[in-house]
């Protein structure tokens, strides 16, 4: 069927190309048979941008070209700039000069390259005033000691409700269903009516639909429930999951699905099975954090597989080459290959904890330790074990700190086990600023310091 008129304003269609899921989210379903250029432009200005604004942090994590840089808060409470490809940098460069034991101490902080420049400029000035440079330059990597939190609160607003209705009605039209049955809704969308309140946010606990382990997708489904209500179930990045009723007493059969990989754009054909019947409660409240973290975790899984495949290929190619050139001693072939693959997997398990499938990683205390993680059930014992540190003074570099508290941040649930990232919080005695160390990092520093003391002690007889 070729439609002649725009579904919203009824003016003649003019080949205006519409992305039913906006292009900003890599939506690939397009049609020139739905809306006119005027409506397309109007919605493009007032409605569609809500997704990009609301989901920007997710676009950064997923490496989308159109993501915008943002500010992120480190655990030290400083604000950092996060580039659109997810790299942190200091917001400002700072050089401080202080006096200690007749020495002039110069300290620079900030973006390493620029901080060094600023440092050298100050050092030159001091040099010209007759001071001699005797110190070392130590570079401290912020990423090493810091975790970042992008301040992001997903709040459902009326623009989002409008934009979701637009996707649902356009898909309805795309499936060539009778638009006269949803004429009221179409006219409210056309009028940018922000009082529309027909959207139920759901699937908070996969009660509607379970995801595959490495799934990051967009999904639109049109189906009928047992009361003959035709509804649209919609998922964007599996984070915004909603049900929208479109017509009551719908008589014909209806089962239409559009399903795509949100990262690659690839169209998917897997059957969509709902665990339960979708309900319409107009609920807008739920924990988006868990849906977001779960989507990021699945994205990590995808990245892990890509790198794993690539690295395995490289190792096999090199191995083949070495075999041909006789570099590998006879009888050692199998051992060498296993050793090379094993080393690669060990390295990857550091960069991507909890991705190796062979065993339950979240139960592996060694791996948790490397990443300063704990299972939730271990946290109380951990605090008990280290509570003797609280209130103690610690010298790190030239600064004195007092040990303040433990900080836990939940980050994933895997196999029903909640994992926590655990930091030690120290307060700088001079500046009163908190500094957060992943617990493994801090315990390692303590044990190095203890070893040093031992070496300085005269051997006991
Ligand atoms: Zn129109």
- Strand fraction band? 15-25%
Number of beta-strand segments: 18
Mean pLDDT: 86
Major sheet characteristics: 5 strands, antiparallel
Helix and strand layout, with pairings?
Blueprint: E1 18-19, E2 30-31, H1 37-46, H2 49-61, E3 70-74, E4 79-82, E5 88-90, E6 94-100, E7 103-109, H3 112-128, H4 142-145, E8 148-150, H5 158-174, H6 183-190, E9 200-201, E10 217-224, E11 230-236, E12 240-247, E13 255-261, H7 288-324, H8 333-351, H9 365-370, E14 373-375, H10 379-386, E15 393-396, E16 399-414, E17 417-428, E18 434-438, H11 439-456
Antiparallel strand pairs: 1-2, 3-4, 3-8, 4-5, 6-7, 9-12, 10-11, 10-13, 11-12, 14-17, 15-16, 16-17, 17-18
Helix pairs in contact: 7-8
The structure holds zinc ion.
Residues 6, 8-9, 11, 35-36, 38-39 line the site of zinc ion.
Report on the architecture of this protein.
There is one protein chain. With 461 residues, this protein is of the alpha+beta class. The protein folds into 4 domains: 18-60 and 154-261, no CATH class; 76-146, no CATH class; 288-352, no CATH class; 369-456, no CATH class. It has helices at 37-46, 49-61, 112-128, 142-145, 158-174, 183-190, 288-324, 333-351, 365-370, 379-386, 439-456, and strands spanning 18-19, 30-31, 70-74, 79-82, 88-90, 94-100, 103-109, 148-150, 200-201, 217-224, 230-236, 240-247, 255-261, 373-375, 393-396, 399-414, 417-428, 434-438. The strands form 5 sheets. It has a 5-stranded antiparallel β-sheet with strand order 9-12-11-10-13, covered by helices on one side. Strands 14, 15, 16, 17 and 18 form a 5-stranded antiparallel β-sheet that branches. Strands 5-4-3-8 form a 4-stranded antiparallel β-sheet, with no helix packed on it. A hairpin with a 4-residue loop joins strand 3 and strand 4. Helix 7 (288-324) packs antiparallel against helix 8. It is globular. Zinc ion is lined by residues 6, 8-9, 11, 35-36, 38-39.
């Amino acid at each position: 069927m070729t439609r002649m008129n725009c579904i919203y304003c009824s003016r003649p269609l003019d080949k205006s190309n519409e992305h039913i899921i906006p292009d900003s989210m890599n939506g690939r379903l397009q049609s020139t048979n739905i809306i006119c250029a005027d409506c397309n432009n109007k919605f493009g200005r007032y409605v569609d941008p809500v997704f990009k604004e609301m989901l920007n942090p997710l676009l950064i994590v997923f490496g989308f070209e159109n993501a915008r840089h943002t500010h992120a808060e480190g655990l030290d409470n400083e604000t950092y700039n996060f580039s659109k490809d997810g790299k942190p940098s200091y917001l400002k460069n700072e050089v401080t000069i202080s006096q200690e034991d007749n020495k002039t101490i110069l300290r620079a902080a900030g973006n390493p390259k620029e901080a060094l420049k600023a440092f050298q400029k100050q050092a030159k000035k001091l040099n010209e005033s007759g001071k001699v440079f005797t110190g070392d330059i130590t570079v401290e990597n912020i990423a090493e000691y810091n975790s970042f939190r992008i301040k992001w609160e997903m709040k459902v607003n009326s623009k989002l409700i409008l934009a979701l209705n637009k996707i649902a009605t356009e898909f309805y039209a795309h499936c060539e269903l009778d638009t006269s049955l949803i004429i009221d809704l179409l006219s409210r969308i056309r009028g940018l009516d922000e009082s529309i309140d027909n959207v139920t946010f759901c699937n908070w606990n996969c009660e509607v639909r379970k995801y595959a382990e490495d799934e990051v997708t967009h999904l639109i489904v049109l189906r009928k429930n047992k009361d003959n209500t035709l509804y649209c179930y919609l998922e964007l990045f599996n984070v915004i999951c909603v049900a929208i009723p479109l017509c009551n007493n719908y008589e014909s059969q209806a089962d239409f699905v559009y399903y795509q990989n949100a990262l690659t754009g690839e169209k998917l054909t897997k059957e969509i099975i709902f665990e339960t019947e979708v309900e319409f409660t107009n609920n807008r409240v739920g924990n988006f954090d868990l849906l977001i973290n779960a989507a990021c975790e699945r994205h990590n899984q995808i990245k892990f597989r890509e790198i794993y495949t690539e690295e395995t290929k490289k190792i096999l190619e090199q191995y083949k080459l070495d075999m041909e050139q006789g570099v590998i001693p006879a009888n050692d072939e199998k051992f060498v290959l296993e050793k090379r693959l094993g080393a690669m997997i060990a390295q990857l398990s550091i960069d991507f904890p909890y991705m190796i499938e062979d065993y339950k990683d979240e139960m592996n205390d060694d791996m948790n330790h490397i990443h300063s993680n704990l299972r939730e059930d271990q946290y109380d014992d951990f605090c008990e074990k280290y509570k003797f540190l609280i209130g103690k003074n610690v010298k790190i570099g030239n600064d004195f700190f007092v040990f303040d508290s433990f900080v836990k941040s939940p980050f994933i649930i895997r196999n029903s086990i909640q994992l926590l990232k655990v930091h030690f919080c120290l307060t700088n005695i001079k500046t009163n600023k908190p500094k957060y160390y992943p617990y493994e990092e801090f315990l390692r520093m303590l044990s190095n310091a203890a070893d040093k003391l031992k070496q300085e002690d005269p051997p006991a007889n």
